[in-house]
Design goal:
Elements: H1 22-34, E1 37-41, E2 47-48, E3 65-68, E4 71-80, E5 93-100, E6 107-111, E7 124-129, E8 154-159
Antiparallel strand pairs: 1-2, 1-3, 4-5, 4-7, 5-6, 7-8
């Protein structure tokens, strides 16, 4: 048998473009960065949160941005006894569908409670926000995650009286 020379050629696959979020999703992320929540009004008048670019029933383009509250009602929930990589906490918590005040559809997010017995359908919860990014002249705290226009700007929801 002879030694075979292996030829290697690097191959880099890249996507040299950026995608914008558009006016509806962009408004949602901008609002989160600023510390409030928006949805969009559907063709039937419902307020959809998180907002959709197109009506889920008629497929019409949706453009009317509507501010909603950052507190609401748990519609449904599931207990997470053992968190996994990528979960918002390294301890037990709940995932819940939360219908925010002023919204007609629920959104999925984490609820920070110590035990499953503290959760119930119909309970009131409120957003716990990341801190706003300090101004240019303000000191930035090391290790602090500031709001940046991401769903995780709402760290989680907590029972309404615990905010």
């Amino acid at each position: 048998m002879s030694d075979v020379e292996v030829m290697i050629a690097p191959n880099v696959i890249e996507y040299p473009f950026r995608r914008t979020t558009g006016p509806v999703i962009g408004a949602f992320f901008t609002a989160l960065r600023e510390g409030f929540v928006v949805g969009v009004r559907g063709s039937d008048g419902r307020v959809i949160v998180p907002p959709a670019e197109y009506d889920p029933v008629t497929a019409e383009e949706l453009t009317e941005i509507v501010e909603v509250g950052d507190a609401g009602e748990v519609v449904s929930w599931a207990w997470v006894a053992e968190s996994l990589d990528g979960h918002p906490f390294d301890r037990p918590f709940a995932f819940a569908l939360v219908k925010l005040d002023g919204a007609d559809t629920p959104m999925l997010h984490a609820v920070d409670v110590a035990a499953a017995e503290q959760m119930r359908t119909g309970m009131r919860v409120a957003a716990r926000w990341r801190p706003a990014r300090p101004g240019a002249d303000d000191e930035v705290a090391e290790g602090v995650r500031y709001r940046e226009g991401h769903i995780a700007d709402i760290e989680c929801f907590v029972p309404e009286g615990d905010r």
